[in-house]
Amino acid sequence: MTTRRAFLNGAAGAMAGAVFTGCDLLGTPHVHAQPAGAARRREVVVNGRRVKTVDVHAHCAFPEAMALMGLQVKPDKLIMGAERIEAMDRQGIDIEALSINPYWYKADRDVAQALIKMQNEKLAELCAAQPDRFVAFATMALQHPDLAVQQLEEGVKKLGLRGVSVGGSVEGRELADPKFHPVWAKAEELGCLIFIHPVGTPELEPRLGGNGGLTNTIGNPLETTLALSHLIYEGTLDRFPGLKICAAHGGGYLPSYADRSDAVCVTFPDRCKSVPLKKKPTEYLRQMFYDSIVFSPEALRHLAAQVGSSQIVMGTDYPFPWTDTSVDHILKTPGLSDAEHAAMLGDTAAKLLRIA
Questions:
Q1: What gap in Å lies between CA 149 and CA 141, rounded to an integer?
Q2: Which of 47, 201, 317, 335 has its CA 20 to 30 A from that of 12?
Q3: H or E segment to which residue 99 belongs
């Protein structure tokens, strides 16, 4: 078991330049856990089996890379060093899959090349220092698709990163835009997981102002809903059937109102003829993956019913404080078997991210 002393001694160099940020760049009878604040890691056991828990939705950023675009990480968003391990231990998270929300889609080619190289190398260094606690998604400059293809291949093949994280759109372009086809072809060839995280809907900001933080509360899941819908309706998932996609925040609103996606092609068939689909829109939902960041057991139960429990992986959105009870959220969701609980907690993500 990794100790905090080992973390401090073995990973201090790699972690020194890491800043952990949130989304805005910012008990059950089967579970045996140490109480909060205890020295030992919380160990999650399901029906007598120790489950290696994997958090697919955990953020970080590197100040040196952000500085290339004149950006800084806000001090109030920082969680660094041993505090990250301590939080994981308390929550029962064995491994985090680190991702960085895209802030570089406006960068020109030279800046984007330097930024992504630095960022991916630092991610690899951080993971190498603590291979039993961290894996990471590569980053790439999607605004320059030919460059993104190179960055993706280097990140996965050379640096050992386990997939790639992307925004829900790229400077107003949908992920389904043919401009990005070469990138999805490479991702399909590599067999790596694509983690889609929203980057906001600035075109709606005039309506998302006021109280309630609607740019995040509504805007983020809405962008994911749009991104997935375009990938379905524009035939991207037919063109690249081997793509492994994981959508943040439970897939946004799409799984909660998915049957309307089928109904529109029946009620208004002319609206679905320009790109004929090989199957019903809802069937594509069952070939993608989704994190567990929905906010009640009933919501998670419904997500599992809509997309299949095999398609759900645990996410925390760490360190953005939506929740610190992701393990219990899954275990307390009714109607799931022990095997389904274990799959959501880590078994499925371990396969997708090639975690031994």
A1: 9
A2: 317
A3: strand 95-99
What CA–CA distance (Å, rounded) separates 340 from 159?
32
Contacts of 177 (CB under 8 A, 6+ apart): 170
Cα radius of gyration (the chain): 20
Share of the chain above pLDDT 90, in %: 78
- Set out the domains of the chain in order of their start, with CATH numbers: 21-352 (3.20.20.140)
**Beta 193-197 vs 312-313: how paired, if at all?**
unpaired
In the block, tokens 């983020």 appear at 220
Give this prediction's pTM: 0.90
Helix H segments across 105-258? 109-129, 145-153, 181-190, 214-217, 219-233, 236-239
How far is it, in rounded angstroms, from Cα 161 to Cα 183?
A: 16
Query: Partners of 316 in the beta sheet?
Result: none
Residue type, 149: V
Residue 164 β-bridge partners: 138, 194
